[in-house]
Amino acid sequence: MTLATTLSVRTTGGCGAEIEGVDAARASDAEIDLIRETVFQRGVAFLHDQKMTPEEQIAFARRIGPIVVNRYFPKSERYPEIAKVEKTAEQTTNIGGGWHTDHSYDEAPAMGSVLLAIQTPPSGGDTLFADMYAAYDALSDGLKDTLSRLKAHHASAHVFGEGSVYAKTDQAVLAGHKDVPEAIHPVVITHPDSGRKVLYVNPAFTTGIVGWTREESLALLGFLYTHAVKPQFVHRFQWRPGSMAIWDNRCTWHQAMNDYHGHHRLMHRITLDGVKLS
Hints:
- By secondary structure, the chain is α+β, with helices and mostly antiparallel strands.
- The protein has a single domain (2-272), classed as Double-stranded beta-helix (4-Layer Sandwich), CATH 3.60.130.10.
- 21% of the residues lie in helices and 28% in strands.
- The protein has six helices and 17 strands.
- It has helices at 29-42, 54-64, 132-137, 141-147, 157-160, 214-228; strands at residues 2-4, 7-11, 17-20, 44-47, 67-68, 83-87, 112-119, 127-131, 151-155, 182-186, 188-190, 197-199, 206-209, 234-237, 244-248, 252-256, 265-272.
- The strands form four sheets. Strands 1, 2, 3, 4, 5, 6, 7, 15 and 17 form a nine-stranded mixed sheet that branches. Strands 14-8-16 form a three-stranded antiparallel sheet. It has a three-stranded antiparallel sheet with strand order 10-9-13.
- The protein is globular, with a radius of gyration of 18 Å.
- The two termini are 30 Å apart.
- Residues 1-5 have low confidence and may be disordered.
Protein backbone atom coordinates (compact mmCIF):
# COMPACT_ATOMS: atom_id res chain seq x y z
CA MET A 1 0.00 0.00 0.00
CA THR A 2 1.38 3.45 -0.90
CA LEU A 3 0.16 6.98 -0.25
CA ALA A 4 2.99 8.87 -1.93
CA THR A 5 6.34 8.09 -3.44
CA THR A 6 8.06 8.33 -0.03
CA LEU A 7 5.40 6.65 2.13
CA SER A 8 4.77 2.90 2.19
CA VAL A 9 3.15 0.27 4.39
CA ARG A 10 4.83 -3.13 4.67
CA THR A 11 3.07 -5.90 6.54
CA THR A 12 5.20 -7.62 9.16
CA GLY A 13 5.00 -11.37 9.66
CA GLY A 14 2.44 -12.49 12.20
CA CYS A 15 1.06 -9.13 13.29
CA GLY A 16 1.21 -5.45 12.42
CA ALA A 17 2.66 -3.36 9.62
CA GLU A 18 5.64 -1.03 9.35
CA ILE A 19 5.03 2.42 7.90
CA GLU A 20 8.04 4.06 6.27
CA GLY A 21 8.53 7.62 5.11
CA VAL A 22 6.27 9.41 7.62
CA ASP A 23 7.22 12.08 10.16
CA ALA A 24 4.51 11.49 12.77
CA ALA A 25 4.95 14.91 14.39
CA ARG A 26 4.21 16.62 11.06
CA ALA A 27 1.91 14.07 9.43
CA SER A 28 -0.77 15.20 7.02
CA ASP A 29 -4.41 14.34 7.62
CA ALA A 30 -4.14 11.65 4.93
CA GLU A 31 -1.12 10.11 6.68
CA ILE A 32 -2.95 10.12 10.02
CA ASP A 33 -5.87 8.35 8.35
CA LEU A 34 -3.48 5.75 6.93
CA ILE A 35 -1.85 5.16 10.34
CA ARG A 36 -5.25 4.79 12.01
CA GLU A 37 -6.53 2.40 9.34
CA THR A 38 -3.34 0.33 9.59
CA VAL A 39 -3.82 0.05 13.35
CA PHE A 40 -7.45 -1.01 12.99
CA GLN A 41 -6.78 -3.57 10.25
CA ARG A 42 -3.33 -4.93 11.19
CA GLY A 43 -3.40 -4.36 14.96
CA VAL A 44 -0.14 -2.40 15.18
CA ALA A 45 1.60 0.31 13.17
CA PHE A 46 5.38 0.38 13.59
CA LEU A 47 7.42 3.52 12.85
CA HIS A 48 11.13 4.24 13.24
CA ASP A 49 13.27 7.38 13.50
CA GLN A 50 10.61 9.58 15.08
CA LYS A 51 12.17 12.66 16.70
CA MET A 52 9.38 13.96 18.92
CA THR A 53 9.13 16.20 21.93
CA PRO A 54 6.59 15.20 24.60
CA GLU A 55 4.29 17.94 23.31
CA GLU A 56 4.53 16.53 19.80
CA GLN A 57 3.83 12.98 20.96
CA ILE A 58 0.73 14.18 22.82
CA ALA A 59 -0.48 16.17 19.81
CA PHE A 60 0.10 13.19 17.50
CA ALA A 61 -1.75 10.79 19.83
CA ARG A 62 -4.74 13.16 19.98
CA ARG A 63 -4.99 12.97 16.20
CA ILE A 64 -5.30 9.17 16.44
CA GLY A 65 -7.89 9.20 19.24
CA PRO A 66 -8.91 10.74 22.58
CA ILE A 67 -6.32 10.42 25.35
CA VAL A 68 -7.05 8.84 28.73
CA VAL A 69 -4.58 9.11 31.63
CA ASN A 70 -3.40 5.70 32.84
CA ARG A 71 -4.37 5.19 36.48
CA TYR A 72 -1.46 2.91 37.45
CA PHE A 73 1.74 3.84 35.61
CA PRO A 74 4.11 6.55 36.88
CA LYS A 75 3.57 9.83 35.03
CA SER A 76 6.33 11.74 33.29
CA GLU A 77 7.50 14.75 35.26
CA ARG A 78 5.64 17.48 33.34
CA TYR A 79 3.05 15.63 31.27
CA PRO A 80 0.37 13.50 33.00
CA GLU A 81 -0.77 12.21 29.60
CA ILE A 82 2.57 10.42 29.23
CA ALA A 83 3.22 7.35 31.36
CA LYS A 84 6.76 6.15 31.93
CA VAL A 85 7.32 2.48 31.10
CA GLU A 86 10.72 2.11 32.68
CA LYS A 87 13.16 -0.46 33.98
CA THR A 88 16.37 0.86 35.50
CA ALA A 89 19.73 -0.89 35.34
CA GLU A 90 19.24 -1.97 38.95
CA GLN A 91 15.75 -3.46 38.57
CA THR A 92 15.04 -7.07 37.65
CA THR A 93 11.29 -6.84 36.96
CA ASN A 94 10.01 -5.15 33.83
CA ILE A 95 6.56 -3.74 33.08
CA GLY A 96 4.23 -5.80 30.91
CA GLY A 97 6.36 -8.92 31.02
CA GLY A 98 3.53 -11.37 30.29
CA TRP A 99 1.01 -11.63 27.47
CA HIS A 100 -1.83 -9.18 28.00
CA THR A 101 -4.28 -6.68 26.55
CA ASP A 102 -4.25 -3.31 28.30
CA HIS A 103 -7.34 -2.20 30.22
CA SER A 104 -9.59 -5.19 29.45
CA TYR A 105 -10.75 -4.84 33.09
CA ASP A 106 -12.45 -1.53 32.22
CA GLU A 107 -16.09 -1.33 31.18
CA ALA A 108 -14.94 0.65 28.14
CA PRO A 109 -11.41 -0.69 27.53
CA ALA A 110 -8.71 1.58 26.17
CA MET A 111 -8.61 1.58 22.38
CA GLY A 112 -4.84 1.44 22.23
CA SER A 113 -1.50 3.03 22.99
CA VAL A 114 1.17 5.20 21.39
CA LEU A 115 4.53 3.98 22.72
CA LEU A 116 7.74 5.87 21.92
CA ALA A 117 11.21 4.52 22.72
CA ILE A 118 13.34 7.07 24.58
CA GLN A 119 16.22 4.89 25.80
CA THR A 120 16.81 1.28 24.79
CA PRO A 121 19.36 -1.34 25.89
CA PRO A 122 22.17 -2.34 23.50
CA SER A 123 20.26 -5.58 22.85
CA GLY A 124 17.03 -7.17 24.07
CA GLY A 125 13.89 -5.45 25.27
CA ASP A 126 11.87 -6.39 22.19
CA THR A 127 8.06 -6.47 22.33
CA LEU A 128 6.00 -9.36 20.99
CA PHE A 129 2.62 -8.61 19.41
CA ALA A 130 -0.02 -11.26 18.65
CA ASP A 131 -2.87 -10.91 16.15
CA MET A 132 -6.26 -11.79 17.66
CA TYR A 133 -8.02 -11.43 14.30
CA ALA A 134 -5.88 -14.25 12.92
CA ALA A 135 -6.16 -16.28 16.12
CA TYR A 136 -9.95 -16.15 15.89
CA ASP A 137 -10.06 -16.87 12.16
CA ALA A 138 -7.98 -20.03 12.65
CA LEU A 139 -10.45 -21.60 15.10
CA SER A 140 -12.88 -24.28 13.94
CA ASP A 141 -16.44 -23.28 13.09
CA GLY A 142 -17.70 -25.38 15.99
CA LEU A 143 -15.52 -23.64 18.55
CA LYS A 144 -16.36 -20.24 17.07
CA ASP A 145 -20.04 -21.07 17.55
CA THR A 146 -19.46 -22.04 21.20
CA LEU A 147 -17.39 -18.95 21.94
CA SER A 148 -19.98 -16.66 20.34
CA ARG A 149 -22.32 -17.34 23.27
CA LEU A 150 -19.79 -16.85 26.07
CA LYS A 151 -18.73 -13.91 28.18
CA ALA A 152 -15.61 -13.60 30.32
CA HIS A 153 -14.77 -11.81 33.54
CA HIS A 154 -11.77 -9.44 33.56
CA ALA A 155 -10.16 -8.03 36.71
CA SER A 156 -7.22 -5.84 37.77
CA ALA A 157 -6.81 -6.30 41.55
CA HIS A 158 -4.49 -9.31 41.28
CA VAL A 159 -2.07 -7.27 39.15
CA PHE A 160 -2.35 -3.70 40.46
CA GLY A 161 -4.14 -3.94 43.82
CA GLU A 162 -2.92 -4.33 47.37
CA GLY A 163 -0.83 -7.48 47.74
CA SER A 164 -0.86 -8.00 43.97
CA VAL A 165 1.85 -9.56 41.84
CA TYR A 166 3.74 -6.29 41.33
CA ALA A 167 3.77 -5.68 45.11
CA LYS A 168 6.23 -8.55 45.48
CA THR A 169 8.70 -7.06 42.97
CA ASP A 170 10.96 -4.05 42.51
CA GLN A 171 8.16 -2.48 40.44
CA ALA A 172 5.97 -2.12 43.55
CA VAL A 173 5.07 1.43 42.49
CA LEU A 174 2.52 -0.24 40.19
CA ALA A 175 0.79 -2.04 43.08
CA GLY A 176 -1.24 -1.05 46.12
CA HIS A 177 -4.08 0.68 44.27
CA LYS A 178 -7.64 0.69 45.59
CA ASP A 179 -9.19 1.62 42.26
CA VAL A 180 -9.21 -1.87 40.75
CA PRO A 181 -12.09 -2.18 38.26
CA GLU A 182 -13.64 -5.36 36.92
CA ALA A 183 -15.67 -5.90 33.77
CA ILE A 184 -17.45 -8.55 31.74
CA HIS A 185 -16.96 -8.70 27.96
CA PRO A 186 -17.92 -11.14 25.20
CA VAL A 187 -15.25 -13.76 24.51
CA VAL A 188 -15.61 -12.83 20.83
CA ILE A 189 -16.19 -9.18 20.04
CA THR A 190 -16.93 -7.30 16.85
CA HIS A 191 -14.18 -4.73 16.41
CA PRO A 192 -15.92 -1.33 16.56
CA ASP A 193 -13.83 0.16 13.73
CA SER A 194 -13.07 -2.74 11.36
CA GLY A 195 -16.27 -4.74 11.89
CA ARG A 196 -14.24 -7.98 12.09
CA LYS A 197 -14.58 -10.72 14.72
CA VAL A 198 -11.84 -10.83 17.37
CA LEU A 199 -10.89 -13.22 20.16
CA TYR A 200 -11.09 -11.05 23.30
CA VAL A 201 -9.57 -12.80 26.31
CA ASN A 202 -6.01 -12.48 27.64
CA PRO A 203 -3.81 -14.29 30.19
CA ALA A 204 -3.15 -11.32 32.47
CA PHE A 205 -6.62 -9.97 33.18
CA THR A 206 -9.22 -12.58 32.13
CA THR A 207 -10.13 -14.52 35.28
CA GLY A 208 -12.88 -16.85 34.11
CA ILE A 209 -15.83 -17.64 31.86
CA VAL A 210 -19.13 -16.34 33.18
CA GLY A 211 -21.27 -19.24 34.47
CA TRP A 212 -18.43 -21.79 34.32
CA THR A 213 -16.43 -23.30 37.16
CA ARG A 214 -12.80 -22.33 37.66
CA GLU A 215 -11.65 -25.71 36.35
CA GLU A 216 -13.83 -25.45 33.25
CA SER A 217 -12.66 -21.88 32.62
CA LEU A 218 -9.00 -22.79 32.98
CA ALA A 219 -9.35 -25.63 30.49
CA LEU A 220 -10.91 -23.47 27.77
CA LEU A 221 -8.83 -20.38 28.42
CA GLY A 222 -5.63 -22.42 28.56
CA PHE A 223 -6.35 -23.80 25.12
CA LEU A 224 -7.12 -20.34 23.71
CA TYR A 225 -3.99 -18.82 25.25
CA THR A 226 -1.75 -21.51 23.75
CA HIS A 227 -3.49 -21.19 20.39
CA ALA A 228 -3.28 -17.37 20.28
CA VAL A 229 0.51 -17.19 20.49
CA LYS A 230 1.34 -19.69 17.77
CA PRO A 231 4.30 -18.37 15.75
CA GLN A 232 2.17 -17.55 12.71
CA PHE A 233 0.21 -14.99 14.76
CA VAL A 234 3.17 -13.25 16.46
CA HIS A 235 5.60 -10.50 15.45
CA ARG A 236 8.70 -9.57 17.46
CA PHE A 237 9.43 -5.83 17.25
CA GLN A 238 12.95 -4.55 17.85
CA TRP A 239 13.15 -1.07 19.35
CA ARG A 240 15.72 1.65 18.99
CA PRO A 241 15.50 5.25 20.24
CA GLY A 242 12.82 6.98 18.18
CA SER A 243 10.92 3.79 17.38
CA MET A 244 7.17 4.00 17.87
CA ALA A 245 4.36 1.45 18.02
CA ILE A 246 0.71 2.42 17.85
CA TRP A 247 -1.40 -0.61 18.71
CA ASP A 248 -5.03 -1.55 19.05
CA ASN A 249 -5.89 -3.33 22.31
CA ARG A 250 -9.12 -4.72 20.85
CA CYS A 251 -7.34 -6.99 18.35
CA THR A 252 -3.85 -7.64 19.73
CA TRP A 253 -1.95 -8.95 22.71
CA HIS A 254 1.55 -7.80 23.59
CA GLN A 255 4.42 -8.85 25.84
CA ALA A 256 7.61 -6.97 26.72
CA MET A 257 10.71 -9.15 26.84
CA ASN A 258 12.80 -8.94 30.03
CA ASP A 259 16.20 -9.94 28.68
CA TYR A 260 18.37 -6.87 29.28
CA HIS A 261 19.30 -6.93 32.98
CA GLY A 262 21.83 -4.27 33.93
CA HIS A 263 20.62 -1.81 31.30
CA HIS A 264 18.15 1.08 31.36
CA ARG A 265 15.04 1.04 29.16
CA LEU A 266 12.61 3.99 29.08
CA MET A 267 9.49 4.29 26.95
CA HIS A 268 6.85 7.04 26.88
CA ARG A 269 3.33 5.68 26.58
CA ILE A 270 0.10 7.49 25.84
CA THR A 271 -3.17 5.59 26.23
CA LEU A 272 -6.06 6.16 23.84
CA ASP A 273 -9.63 6.03 25.14
CA GLY A 274 -12.07 3.40 23.93
CA VAL A 275 -15.72 2.38 23.88
CA LYS A 276 -17.79 -0.41 25.37
CA LEU A 277 -17.35 -3.64 23.41
CA SER A 278 -20.01 -5.95 22.02
